Amino acid sequence: MHPIRTRFFSTGEQKELVKMFEEVMDWPGFVHNGTGLDYWEWKYRRRSCPGFASCAAWSNGHPVSHASWINSQMLVNGRELLAGQISDLYTHPNFRGHGLADRVLGCLNKHSLANDVEMMFAFPSSIGYEIMRKRGYFEIGSQFVQYQLITNPSKFFAQTKLGMLKRMAYEAMLAVRSPSLRGTVEEVDSFPEDVGEMTRAFEARFDLVARHSTEYLNWRYADPAGGMFRILITRQEARTTGFAVLRPYSMDDAHYMDIVDMMFDLNDPMVAQELIAAAISAAQDECADGIQTWLPGGHILAPILGRTGFLIRAPLTGERQLRMLYQTAEGEDELQKTLDRPDLKIHIMLGDTDWV
Fold first, then answer.
1. Quick check: pTM over 0.85?
2. How far apart, in whole angstroms, are the C-alpha atoms of residue 123 and residue 39?
3. How many angstroms separate the CA atoms of 325 and 85, rounded?
4. What's the rounded Cα separation, in Å, for the pair 272 and 304?
5. CA distances in angstroms from 161 to 167, 293, 317, 355, listed in the order given
6. How far is CA 122 from the centre of its chain?
7. How confident is the model over 80-133, as pLDDT tens digits?
8. Partners of 243 in the beta sheet?
9. Which of 167, 191, 266, 269 has the most CB atoms around its CB within 10 Å?
């Protein structure tokens, strides 16, 4: 075996890195405009919060293991801080079992201390979870829950025992729970400038939340190079009162719709119901079999989803579960105490992760 050396990213190496990512998996794992290199440029070079660190183990001129962190703005107890989101933690199958993932993570941790990053966080795979836990990462106490509403009961229940009876009961429940539309929801290509005022007020109600500025939202969801999303907004008297971001996708001959992000005027709960109703309608227009979303346990959206007909979906064996790990910088004792709290109010959704 050739010698393996670990070092930070140098300009021009992204082509080799993307090649390795694509050999490990169908990177990035979802539909987007352009090539893998286009996606890399969007993710690492065109961020609304600039800055990243990328560390790879190299053998014979090729990367064989990699991890990175990308700058993110987080709010903890109302205080805005610079955080690093761990991403693209991969090791080539031919080089696994040699501790390379642990090595590149250690390389990143040293770099974060020199760049004023106050906390690192990640939403890892099951393997990444074990590696990061051994490196001293903690798990956020709130357990994430997946909610699902079946939008095509005929197809879904045709595959189950007593399917006809279950389908009739489910459709009757949906008929009772289906929210009505007030006509304030519209689909847009980008976010209006005033959305940042609404998101600030929403974020103030949580102890841990990613900062959703207008610039961030347009970078994250309105650029097709980063993924294919549908953006819904609500307006009242020319004021933006909420948004929901949807992601249609297909898997195993089934079609789904994810609600990947959502914020709304907390003084008007009807806004959330309007957005959910519009999301259900969009899923039906896309002929989706179901619409899903992930939320932290105890989230204020959970009862609204329940009243609309969403049910908790237990992950199947082998399915990836949404879990958030974190590690604070040395000397951040108060930050560590806050994140350790079991009653931490969290707003984290799929769009805050690197899953989509």
1. yes
2. 19
3. 10
4. 8
5. 11, 26, 20, 33
6. 10
7. 999 999 999 999 999 999 999 999 999 988 776 667 899 999 999 999 999 999
8. 233, 263
9. 191
- Distance CA(286)–CA(292), nearest Å, equals 14
Q: Among 289, 269, 270, which Cα is nearest to 280's? A: 289
User: In whole angstroms, how far apart are CA 163 and each of 41, 126, 147, 156, 251?
Assistant: 47, 33, 21, 8, 22
- Given a contact cutoff of 8 angstroms between Cβ atoms, the answer to whether 28 and 87 are in contact is no
Distance from chain centroid for Cα 153 = 27
DSSP helix/strand/coil, 241:
strand
**Cα distance between the two ends of the chain:** 35
- 3-class DSSP state for residue 61? coil
The tokens for 269 are 């709960």
Cis peptide before 303 (omega within 30 of 0): no
> Which CA distances in Å does 299 have to 89, 145, 243, 266?
29, 10, 17, 13
Q: From the CB of residue 323, how many other CB atoms can be counted at a distance below 10 Å?
A: 17
Please choose, from the candidates 192, 98, 141, 165, the residue with its C-alpha nearest in 3D space to the C-alpha of residue 297: 141
Question: Any idea which residue has 């984290």 for tokens?
Answer: 348
Tokens 């949404």 appear where? 322
